[in-house]
C-alpha cells in the first residue's frame, strides 16, 4: 500500500501511482470519476505529493478547471503548458506542440481537477498528445464529477480519451470509523454504519458532521443526523429558486422518505400539474426522477439533502405533511408511521395498532418492517412492561432482518430489563449471528428453562427456532431436526415460526444422511411458503441442499432468487447465506470472476450488517480462487478475513480450515494441507462435516497423505468415507474420493487399479457441470501415469487438465501442467542431444530446486519420491559440473513461470 494519510484510499492510490509511473515507458490518460465530496481532489493532491517527490526528473503540474472558463478554447492547456501557442483550432496540432514542449529529461505529469468543467479543446489536445506521442513520457490524470455536472461535451471527450477509467468508491464502514477515530470520536459499529449510509460514504460530508454534531449524539442508537452545514446552505439556496409548487413537491418527497410514485407525492403536496415543479426541483438537484415498471418514481435520493430539507420545515409544517402522507399511503405500516410522526404526544391506540401490525408482519417474515413498527410502538408506549416487551421484539426483528449492528447497540438496554424467556432468546439469537456459540448456548438454555410451554407455546416455538439456528451453526443435524420438530409440535406446521424452522430442517436431515427425506421436505414446504420473505428462507435452504446433492442448476436458480434483499421483507441474514453458497456454485462451475464479485458484495453486506457468522464461508471461495490464480497476497488477505478459532462455531471453523488448506495445496505444501485440515479429522467433525456434498475436504486430506508418502494412513482414512459415499449414492463426492483412491493405487504401483479409479471418477463427473473437479482429476491422473512411465498417455491427460485449468484461469496449475508436460518429455527433441544435456525430468527438478524449493517440496510438486528427486539432482550436478544448490541457482536463473 502507498503510505497515505487518506483513509480507505490505499488501493486506489496504488492503482493511480502505478499508472502514472508506467508513463515512463508509455504515455497515459487517466480519468478519475466520483460525486462531489467523495475526495477525488484529495486523492489528486496525494498523487501530486507522492510522484512529485520522486526526483528532479519528474515534472508535476496541476490545475483546476472552472465553469466560467469552459468556453475558452485551449485555456487549460495554456495554463498547464506555458509557452504553447499556435494559430488554429486543430487539437491534433496542439497535441504535437504540447509533446514538443515537454521535458525531454524526465516524466511530465499533468493533473487536472474538475475536468468536467474544462474546455473540450484542451482535453482533445491533451488526448492527442498522449495518443500520438506514446513515448513522450506524459501522464494526464483528470478528476470529474458524473453527469449532469459540468459540460456534457467534456464528458464525451474524457470517455473517449481515457486509457484508464477509475471510479472513486464510497468509504466503507470501517474507513468511516477510522476517520472518526482521527477526530477523537469512537463510533459504535451501528453508528459508523449509520453515518456511512447518511453521508453515502463521502469523506467531506462525514468529516463535516463529525465536526459539527455534538459528541453526545454519537452515543445514541441510530440518531437523527442533520445535513452538513454546506449542504444545508446549498439546499436553502436551491429552495429559494423554486416555485411554491416545487417547494411543496420537495417537502412531500422528503417526508415520504423512500421513492414513491409521482401520484402519491402529488397527493401529499396537493399539486395537480406536477411537471413544471418536477423539472425545476430536478434542475436544482433536490429530487431524482426514475421510471419503474409501473410508475414514475420521485425521491430525495441523498439523505443529507433530505435532512437539509427537513431543517427548513417548521414542526407544524412537518406534522401537516405527515398527516397528508398518512392519508395518501397505501401500506398500513407507512400510514401508522406517519401518524406517529405527526403527533407531538404518545397515542395509546396508535401504539397498539403498531404493535399488532408489527406482529403480523413478523409472522410473514417481513422483519425489517416489523422492527420499524415495534420500535415506533415502544417509543410511543407509556406502560413500562409493554414498552420493554415491544423493545425486545424490535431487537429480535432487527436480528431477523440481519441488522446485527443496530441490534448490538441495544444489548446493554436489553440486559438491564427484567429477565424473561423472550429477552434471553433474543440475546441468544444475537450471539448466534455474531458467531459466539458459548454465549448463545447459555442464553438459549436459560430461555428454555424459563418458558412455560403450555401457557406460552409461541414463545417456546421461537426459542426452538433459535435452537435450530444454533445447531445449524454447530453442524449438528440431529439436534437441529429435534428442535425443528419441537417447534412444529408447539404451534403447528402452518405457524410462521414453524415454517421458518422447517426451512432449515431439511439441512439437518441431510446432515444426518436422510437425503431423500430432506429433499421431500422442501417439496412439501413450498405449499406453506413459496413467495415473499418466508419464501426467501425456503429458497435459500433448498438451494443449499440441492447444491450439496449435485442438483447444480436447480441450486443456482434457487440461490440466485434468495440472494437479493430488495423484494418484500428480504432478510440480509438469509441473503448472506445465499451469497456464500452461490459463490461456491460459481467456483465449481468455473465462473470465478462472478464468484469473486459475489464474495465482494456479500462481504460488504456482512460488514454493514455485522453478521460475523457467515464471513468465513464467503472468504473461503475468494481464498481458493486467489490461491489457484497465484495471487498469494490476495489469498492471504482473504484467509485472514475468514479466519476463525476453536471457540467459534463449527460452520465458521470448517471453511476457514478449507481456505488455509487451499493456499497450502496451491503452494504444493502438503504438510501444510494436513495441518490445516487436522481439526476436521477430530470427533466433532465425524458426522455432519463429513457428510458427502456439504464440505469437499476428505479427498484433499487423503491426497495430501498420499503425496507425503503416508499410504497406509491414506487407505485407512479413505475406507469409511468411501463407504458413506456408496451408501448415500453421492456422485461428485464419489468422483473426488475415486480420484484420491487412484492416486493411492498409483503410489502403490497398481497402475491398472489406478486407471480404473480415475476413469470411474471422470465418468461420475461427466453429467455434472463441475469444471474444477474435472480438471483436478485429470491432473492427478496424468501425474500418476507419468510417474508410472506411461508418458505418452500421461501427455494427453495432463493436456486435458491444462485446458481445464486454463479455462478457469488457474494459473498456478497451468504452470504445473506445463512442468508435467515438460517432465514427460513426449515433445522433447531427442535427436542430436548432447550426452551431458539435461533430460526433461532433470530439467524440471533443477528448475524447481533453483527457486529455493527443498527436495521434499519438489517431490510433492512433481509427484515423485524424495529419493527420485535426489537421484535426478545428483545427475544434474554431475552434468553441470556443480556441487551445491547455490551453484545451481546461480547457473540457471530462476524461471519466473516455475515458481509457486
Automatic annotation (TrEMBL):
Record flagged with keyword Transcription: yes
Alphabetized UniProt keyword annotations: DNA-binding, Transcription, Transcription regulation
HTH luxR-type domain location: 831-896
Domain of life per record: Bacteria
InterPro entries given in the database record: AAA_16, P-loop_NTPase, Sig_transdc_resp-reg_C-effctor, TPR-like_helical_dom_sf, Tscrpt_reg_LuxR_C, WalR-like, WH-like_DNA-bd_sf
Record carries keyword NAD: no
Pfam families: AAA_16, GerE
PANTHER family in the cross-refs: TRANSCRIPTIONAL REGULATORY PROTEIN NARL-RELATED (PTHR43214:SF24), TWO-COMPONENT RESPONSE REGULATOR (PTHR43214)
Protein's UniProt name: LuxR C-terminal-related transcriptional regulator
Organism: Rhodococcus navarretei
Amino acid at each position: 500500500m502507498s503510505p497515505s494519510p487518506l483513509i480507505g484510499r490505499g488501493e486506489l492510490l496504488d492503482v493511480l501511482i502505478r499508472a502514472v509511473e508506467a508513463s515512463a515507458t508509455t504515455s497515459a490518460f487517466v480519468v478519475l470519476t466520483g460525486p462531489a465530496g467523495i475526495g477525488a481532489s484529495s486523492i489528486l493532491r496525494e498523487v501530486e505529493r507522492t510522484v512529485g517527490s520522486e526526483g528532479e526528473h519528474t515534472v508535476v503540474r496541476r490545475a483546476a478547471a472552472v465553469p466560467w472558463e469552459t468556453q475558452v478554447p485551449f485555456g487549460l492547456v495554456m495554463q498547464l503548458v506555458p509557452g504553447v501557442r499556435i494559430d488554429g483550432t486543430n487539437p491534433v496540432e496542439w497535441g504535437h506542440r504540447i509533446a514538443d514542449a515537454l521535458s525531454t529529461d524526465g516524466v511530465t505529469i499533468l493533473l487536472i481537477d474538475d475536468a468536467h468543467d474544462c474546455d473540450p479543446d484542451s482535453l482533445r489536445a491533451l488526448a492527442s498528445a498522449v495518443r500520438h506521442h506514446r513515448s513522450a513520457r506524459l501522464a494526464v490524470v483528470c478528476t470529474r464529477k458524473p453527469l449532469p455536472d459540468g459540460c456534457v461535451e467534456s464528458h464525451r471527450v474524457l470517455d473517449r480519451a481515457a486509457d484508464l477509467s477509475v471510479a472513486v468508491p464510497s468509504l466503507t464502514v470501517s474507513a468511516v470509523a477510522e476517520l472518526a477515530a482521527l477526530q477523537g470520536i469512537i463510533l459504535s459499529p451501528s453508528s459508523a454504519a449509520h453515518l456511512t449510509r447518511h453521508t453515502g460514504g463521502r469523506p467531506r460530508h462525514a468529516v463535516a458532521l463529525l465536526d459539527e454534531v455534538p459528541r453526545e449524539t454519537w452515543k445514541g442508537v441510530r440518531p437523527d443526523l442533520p445535513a452538513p452545514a454546506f449542504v444545508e446552505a446549498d439546499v436553502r439556496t436551491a429552495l429559494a429558486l423554486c416555485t411554491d409548487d416545487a417547494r411543496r413537491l420537495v417537502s412531500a418527497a422528503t417526508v415520504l422518505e423512500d421513492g414513491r410514485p409521482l401520484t402519491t407525492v402529488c397527493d401529499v403536496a396537493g399539486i395537480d400539474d406536477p411537471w413544471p415543479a418536477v423539472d425545476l426541483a430536478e434542475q436544482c438537484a433536490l429530487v431524482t426522477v426514475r421510471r419503474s415498471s409501473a410508475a414514475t418514481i420521485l425521491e430525495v435520493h441523498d439523505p443529507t439533502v433530505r435532512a437539509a430539507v427537513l431543517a427548513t420545515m417548521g414542526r407544524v409544517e412537518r406534522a401537516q405533511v405527515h398527516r397528508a402522507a398518512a392519508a395518501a399511503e397505501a401500506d398500513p405500516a407507512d400510514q401508522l408511521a406517519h401518524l406517529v410522526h405527526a403527533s407531538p404526544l404518545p397515542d395509546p391506540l396508535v401504539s397498539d395498532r403498531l404493535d399488532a401490525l408489527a406482529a403480523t408482519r413478523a409472522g410473514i417474515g417481513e422483519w425489517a418492517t416489523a422492527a420499524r413498527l415495534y420500535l415506533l410502538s415502544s417509543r410511543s408506549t407509556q406502560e413500562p412492561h409493554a414498552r420493554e416487551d415491544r423493545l425486545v421484539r424490535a431487537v429480535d426483528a432487527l436480528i431477523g432482518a440481519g441488522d446485527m449492528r443496530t441490534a448490538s447497540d441495544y444489548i446493554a438496554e436489553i440486559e438491564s430489563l427484567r429477565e424473561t424467556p423472550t429477552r434471553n432468546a433474543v440475546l441468544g439469537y444475537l450471539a448466534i449471528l455474531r458467531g459466539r456459540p458459548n454465549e448463545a448456548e447459555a442464553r438459549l438454555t436459560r430461555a428454555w428453562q424459563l418458558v412455560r410451554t403450555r401457557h406460552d407455546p409461541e414463545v417456546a416455538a421461537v426459542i426452538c427456532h433459535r435452537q435450530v439456528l444454533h445447531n445449524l451453526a454447530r453442524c449438528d443435524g440431529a439436534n437441529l431436526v429435534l428442535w425443528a420438530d419441537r417447534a412444529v409440535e408447539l404451534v403447528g406446521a402452518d405457524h410462521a415460526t414453524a415454517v421458518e424452522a422447517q426451512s432449515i430442517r431439511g439441512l439437518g436431515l441431510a446432515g444426518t444422511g436422510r437425503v431423500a427425506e430432506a429433499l421431500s421436505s422442501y417439496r412439501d414446504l413450498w405449499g406453506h411458503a413459496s413467495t415473499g420473505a418466508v419464501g426467501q428462507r425456503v429458497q435459500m435452504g433448498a438451494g443449499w441442499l440441492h447444491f450439496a446433492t449435485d442438483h447444480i442448476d436447480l441450486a443456482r436458480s434457487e440461490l440466485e432468487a434468495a440472494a437479493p434483499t430488495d423484494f418484500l421483507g428480504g432478510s440480509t441474514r438469509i441473503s448472506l447465506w445465499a451469497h456464500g453458497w452461490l459463490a461456491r456454485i460459481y467456483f465449481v462451475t468455473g465462473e470465478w470472476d462472478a464468484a469473486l464479485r459475489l464474495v465482494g458484495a456479500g462481504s460488504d453486506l456482512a460488514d454493514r450488517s455485522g453478521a460475523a457468522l457467515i464471513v468465513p464461508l464467503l472468504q473461503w471461495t475468494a481464498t481458493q480462487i486467489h490461491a489457484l490464480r497465484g495471487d498469494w497476497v490476495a489469498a492471504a488477505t482473504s484467509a485472514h478475513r475468514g479466519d476463525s478459532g476453536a471457540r467459534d462455531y463449527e460452520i465458521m471453523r470448517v471453511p476457514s480450515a478449507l481456505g488455509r488448506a487451499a493456499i497450502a495445496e496451491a503452494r504444493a505444501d502438503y504438510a501444510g494441507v494436513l495441518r490445516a485440515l487436522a481439526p476436521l479429522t477430530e470427533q466433532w467433525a465425524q458426522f455432519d462435516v463429513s457428510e458427502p456434498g456439504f464440505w469437499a475436504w476428505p479427498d484433499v486430506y487423503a491426497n495430501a497423505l498420499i503425496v507425503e508418502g503416508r499410504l497406509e494412513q491414506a487407505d485407512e482414512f479413505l475406507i469409511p468415507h468411501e463407504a458413506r459415499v456408496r451408501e448415500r449414492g453421492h456422485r461428485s463426492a464419489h468422483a473426488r474420493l475415486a480420484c484420491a483412491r487412484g492416486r493411492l493405487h498409483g503410489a502403490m504401483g497398481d497402475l491398472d487399479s489406478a486407471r480404473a479409479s480415475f476413469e470411474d471418477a471422470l465418468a461420475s463427473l461427466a453429467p455434472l457441470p463441475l469444471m474444477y473437479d474435472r480438471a483436478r482429476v485429470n491432473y492427478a491422473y496424468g501425474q500418476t501415469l507419468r510417474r508410472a512411465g506411461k508418458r505418452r498417455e500421461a501427455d494427453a491427460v495432463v493436456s486435458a487438465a491444462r485446458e481445464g485449468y486454463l479455462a478457469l484461469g488457474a494459473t498456478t496449475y497451468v504452470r504445473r501442467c506445463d512442468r508435467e508436460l515438460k517432465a514427460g518429455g513426449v515433445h522433447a527433441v531427442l535427436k542430436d542431444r548432447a550426452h551431458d544435456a539435461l533430460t526433461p525430468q532433470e530439467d524440471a527438478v533443477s528448475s524447481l530446486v533453483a527457486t529455493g524449493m527443498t527436495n521434499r517440496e519438489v517431490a510433492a510438486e512433481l509427484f515423485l519420491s524424495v529419493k527420485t528427486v535426489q537421484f535426478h539432482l545428483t545427475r544434474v550436478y554431475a552434468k553441470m559440473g556443480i556441487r551445491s544448490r547455490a551453484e545451481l541457482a546461480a547457473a540457471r536463473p530462476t524461471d519466473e513461470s516455475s515458481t509457486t
